[in-house]
Amino acid sequence: DSKQAQVAISFYSSGRDALHLRRLSLINDLRRATENNQLSVCYQPKMTLDDERIAHVEALVRWQHPVEGPISPDEFIPLAEHAGSIRQITRWMLRTVIRQCRAWRDLGHDIGVSINISAMDLASGDLPANVRALLDEFAIAADRVVLEVTESAVMRDSAIALDMLGRLKECGVRLAIDDFGTGYSSLSHLKRMPVDELKIDKSFVIGMADDSNDATIVRATIELGHSMGLLVVAEGVENSRSLRMLADYRCDMAQGYLISRPLPAAELTAMLVSHNAM
Ligand code: C2E
Ligand code: CA
Ligand code: CA
Ligand code: CA
Description:
It comes from Dokdonella immobilis. The protein contains 13 helices and ten strands. The chain has about 280 residues and is α/β, with parallel strands linked by helices.
């Protein structure tokens, strides 16, 4: 019997419970990740499709765990949201990225930056004041900063989130709706959101050159975005065939591995120098 119990314990701890323990310990480690300098930022360019210039980059957080090594934001951001440490991460990102935006300007690169914002950030009242203070501190024009929010983040608490988006717009920053097409938002809801930019989710873009359904969705989304006066960005551009199709469809910007992977700031600077000089 005790042998059986032993087997059961090791079975569980190698399965569901082990996962649970990993989550708990990561949640705990995340609380100190910012102060222990374990976070860093990679920047991925967005390229305009008409003149193929890079005038904008998306900032993506990276976590180097002292024992586990690099952990994907797809894994730790939901944990940080669950545990409440996302607000600390967002504050750190805003400061780091707006400071980098200033550093690029000082080097002669007038580059806009996008920062991802979570549902929980939209519920915390101090985000607009925080953004405004950073824009002042680094003397960055508000319209150089884009905040990306997902449809589902806004859906979760619609009234509060919409109010927060309105207050952010008053700061002069631009707003983007991220992962468009994957949430369950209605078009009437989209119409009420004070956004400037629509990002088509990469799940539609990655295979669009080989899947006519995806291509149709991408094309219709570009038209929808334009009819609402939005700038349309396609993410997940991995091959030149999809890039050509997007240009045909009059998409405004492309982002994806074809153009560049997300890079550390110094490598992105080198890329700006060589790419925009062409
Ligand atoms: P996202 O905001 O949709 O960011 C785009 C993700 O797609 C990034 O993954 C990027 O590396 C990846 N990607 C870019 N081009 C391609 C491509 O051509 N093909 C493929 N297959 N993937 C591509 P990453 O950096 O792992 O981030 C994953 C997600 O984690 C982000 O998705 C975002 O939801 C979240 N995230 C990342 N950084 C932050 C942050 O600072 N704050 C918050 N709240 N969330 C973040
Ligand atoms: Ca994003
Ligand atoms: Ca996205
Ligand atoms: Ca995503």
